[in-house]
Amino acid sequence: MSATSSSEPHEFHQLYSDHHAWLYRWLRRRLGCSHHAADLAHDTYLRILSSRQAPSAEQARPHLMQIARGLVIDRYRRQTIELAYQQALSMQPETLAPSAEERVLIIEALMQIDSMLASLKPLVRETFLLSRFEGLTYSEIAKRLGIAVATVRKYMLVAMHACVAATAE
After folding, report:
1. Distance CA 46, CA 78 (A)
2. How far, CA to CA in Å, does 124 sit from each of 1, 37, 156, 161, 167?
3. Could you give the 3-state DSSP secondary structure of residue 53?
C-alpha cells in the first residue's frame, strides 16, 4: 500500500464520499446484514482516521478491502467465541450465571486469549494447549509431538510469556 501521511480532512472526506457506498455493498454481500455492514464500514473508516494515513487514490479500494476483511474475520472470531461461551453457560445452573457486565468482561478476556494463542507459532500453541487443556505432562507432549522435553519447556516458557504480555495490556 502506498499511503501518504496526512491529517488533511479533505482527503478523508474524499475517500469516504468516493468509496463508502461501494464498501458498504461489498460488506453487505459478505455479511448478509445491512446493520452489520454499516457498522463494519464505519469501523473501517475509523481505522483509517486513527492511523492518520490516507491511501493513494489507486490504492483506496484494496486498502479499504484489506481493513474490512480483517474486521469481518475479527467479527466471526468473536461470534464463535461468544457462541462457545454461551453453550458453556447453558450447561451451568442458572444460579451461577454471571451478570451481563461480567459476561462482557469474560468475552473480552476470551478474545484476548484467542488473539494471544493466534499469535503463537503452531507448535508452541499446540504444546500450550496440550499442557493446559488436555493436562498432558511435558514427557507426554514431547512424545506426541515428536520433540524433546527441553523443547516442550522452551515452548511453554514462550507461551507463558505471551500470556503475561496479553494480560498486561
Report:
1. 19
2. 32, 36, 7, 12, 18
3. strand
Nine-digit cell string for 95? 444460579
Cα distance from N-terminal residue to C-terminal residue, the chain = 29
Report how far residue 114's alpha carbon sits from residue 161's, in angstroms, rounded to the nearest whole number.
15
What is the structure's pLDDT at 169?
65
Q: Which helix (H) or strand (E) holds 79?
A: helix 60-90
pLDDT at residue number 138: 95
User: In the prediction, which pLDDT does 108 show?
Assistant: 86
The reported pTM is 0.63
Strand duo 53-55 + 3-5: pairing: antiparallel
For residue 5, the model assigns a pLDDT of 44
Residues 128, 132: Cα–Cα separation, whole Å: 6
Q: Splitting the chain (169 residues) into consecutive groups of 10 residues, what average pLDDT does each group show?
A: 53 88 94 93 91 84 92 89 85 81 87 87 94 92 96 95 82
Q: Decide if 162 contacts 119 (C-beta within 8 A).
A: yes
* 3-state DSSP helix/strand/coil % of the chain, to nearest 5: 80, 5, 15
Q: Please state, in angstroms and rounded to a whole number, the distance separating the CA atoms of residues 157 and 124.
A: 9
162, 66, 155, 70: which is closest to 112 by C-alpha?
A: 162
Per DSSP, which regions of 68-144 are E strands? none
Contact call for residues 15 and 52 (beta carbons, < 8 A): no
